[in-house]
Task: inverse folding
């Protein structure tokens, strides 16, 4: 699971894992992901509750032996941006298309850690920041449905693909935050 | 202002003396809602410590200046930090040494009364979890009943009164706390007794506690007379000690009765529970003093902090003993039961010897209230 910053809080007792996380989070760019490594078992519930109270996204925790790896994404103002890509499709419509087994591609442009903990099965993961470089993984002739958490990063991705000559690109709104269909994790 | 450490023992005194006291609990809201330090004249304010990392100004108006203030967290660290913040802001506060973990493990021994030949019976009150365990002492010998996993407390206490632990009992296989019975028996070479119907799957040696078993403590006859009283578990047993005390385990409490669902299906044992409470107990002397294995609410504590009441009084006042209609009784003990105790399946497996979690894990499994009763 990828993260922009890794914080080592192993061996530290409460409250230090949160105190350190808060400090690093202040320096982190909005939208970026931090991995907090801790051995304090109580840190899981606390990190989750702290993230909820501060508006950051708690993505999940991986347990590797004694070490807990918590993934958090720093809050960004993405909810407020205006969407520009004209072709949109609702969560429900996408769910129907997936059920009818159409030959479609669903592209998830969230960060890899967000994708890792929760995503629609058989989707392609290319974080928005890597899209330019990895565009050749996509076929211009298939319908592409782009999803993110709230519909904003996917809007930017849809614009980018349209610029590059992709013609059948849809932005899925509102996106994973309100997705009620099937999901899976790594 | 200075930050003072306060021990669980000091807090226990405040609970028992019903002192006015203020607790600033800095654990998560869910943890606080689930379980906290209960005191009749305690006031509380809960805010997670991580909401206060930028300072305590936001809560200064919530902290009284006319009462003692204790900051409490799960393990101590966060409460020290918040107590220091409050101290820098000019308040004089304490923090709870060892946090809720220590509180959960604190045992307060109380002398319940004398036995006919001059022996004594002590109740160990675990305020933090509502567990009650017992030590019967006679002529330099001691028996322990329904012990917690804090085995040193009993061993040290027995040493302090020059008594040798010779018998250790569990009234039933516990689902809410880890029994220290087997460990104490091993350490002191005492005999460990369990009701065999609860012990079908245990992985260690024990003596079978059957209906009518009598065990003598000390050289003069202090009898512990076992009475089979299934319902909470299929093996649940009640002890009559010295013809004076009824150690009712999790079958009968002061203000409630045992729930029949923690070791299987409630429906299966309703009839047994009814039979135990409404027939077997009715045949006993009403003068017996009931000493249960739990309390649920502070109202069940007597003035001296003990939990004890005459059986006759319970027949008159305990709602669970006064339900004429069998169907109403069945519904009470099978429907709308409170949530089960934390990790109760793992706790049962530990008590059977099937799993051996380390101390840290055992602590974690026991977090929270006991939840063994229905009212």
Result:
């Amino acid at each position: 699971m990828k993260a922009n910053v890794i914080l080592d809080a192993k061996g530290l007792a409460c409250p230090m894992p949160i105190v350190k996380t808060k400090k690093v989070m202040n320096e982190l760019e909005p939208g970026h992901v931090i991995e907090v490594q801790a051995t304090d078992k109580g840190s899981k519930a606390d990190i989750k509750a702290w993230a909820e109270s501060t508006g950051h996204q708690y993505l999940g925790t991986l347990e590797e032996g004694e070490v807990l790896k918590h993934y958090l994404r720093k809050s960004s103002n993405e909810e407020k941006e205006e969407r520009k890509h004209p072709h949109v499709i609702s969560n429900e419509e996408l769910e129907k298309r997936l059920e009818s087994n159409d030959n479609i591609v669903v592209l998830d442009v969230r960060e890899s850690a967000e994708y890792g903990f929760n995503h629609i099965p058989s989707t392609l993961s290319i974080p928005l920041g890597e899209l330019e470089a990895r565009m050749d993984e996509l076929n211009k002739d298939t319908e592409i449905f782009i999803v993110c958490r709230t519909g904003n990063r996917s809007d930017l991705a849809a614009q980018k693909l349209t610029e590059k000559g992709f013609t059948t690109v849809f932005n899925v709104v509102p996106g994973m935050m309100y997705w009620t269909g099937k999901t899976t994790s790594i | 202002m200075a930050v003072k450490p306060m021990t669980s023992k000091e807090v226990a005194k405040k609970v028992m003396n019903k002192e006015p006291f203020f607790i600033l609990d800095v654990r998560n809201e869910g943890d606080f809602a689930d379980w906290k330090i209960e005191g009749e004249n305690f006031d509380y304010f809960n805010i997670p410590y991580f909401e206060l990392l930028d300072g305590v100004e936001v809560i200064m108006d919530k902290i009284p200046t006319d009462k003692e203030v204790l900051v409490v967290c799960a393990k101590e660290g966060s409460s020290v930090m918040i107590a220091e913040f409050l101290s820098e802001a000019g308040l004089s506060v304490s923090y709870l040494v060892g946090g809720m973990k220590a509180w959960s493990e604190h045992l307060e021994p109380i002398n319940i009364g004398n036995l006919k030949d001059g022996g004594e019976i002590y109740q160990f009150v675990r305020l933090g979890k509502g567990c009650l365990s017992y030590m019967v002492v006679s002529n330099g010998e001691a028996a322990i009943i329904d012990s917690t996993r804090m085995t040193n407390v009993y061993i040290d206490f027995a040493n302090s009164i020059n008594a040798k632990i010779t018998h250790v009992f569990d009234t039933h296989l516990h689902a809410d706390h880890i029994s220290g019975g087997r460990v104490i028996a091993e350490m002191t070479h005492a005999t460990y007794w369990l009701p065999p119907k609860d012990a079908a799957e245990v992985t260690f040696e024990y003596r079978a506690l059957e209906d009518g078993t009598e065990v003598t403590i000390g050289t003069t006859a202090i009898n512990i007379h076992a009475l089979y009283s299934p319902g909470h578990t299929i093996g649940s047993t009640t002890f009559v000690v010295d013809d004076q005390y009824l150690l009712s385990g999790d079958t009968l409490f002061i203000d409630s009765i045992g729930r029949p669902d923690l070791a299987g299906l409630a429906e299966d044992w309703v009839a047994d529970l009814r039979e135990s409470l409404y027939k077997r107990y009715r045949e006993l002397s009403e003068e017996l003093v009931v000493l249960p294995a739990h309390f649920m609410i502070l109202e069940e504590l007597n003035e001296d902090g003990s939990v004890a009441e005459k059986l006759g009084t319970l027949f008159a006042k305990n709602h669970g003993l006064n339900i004429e209609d069998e169907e109403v009784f069945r519904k009470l003990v099978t429907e709308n039961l409170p949530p089960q105790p934390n990790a109760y399946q793992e706790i049962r497996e530990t008590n059977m010897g099937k799993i051996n979690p380390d101390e840290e894990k055992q602590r974690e499994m026991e977090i929270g209230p006991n939840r063994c009763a229905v009212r």
Summary: The two ends of chain B are 46 Å apart (CA to CA). The CA atoms of residues 175 and 345 of chain B lie 7 Å apart. Chain B has a mean pLDDT of 92.
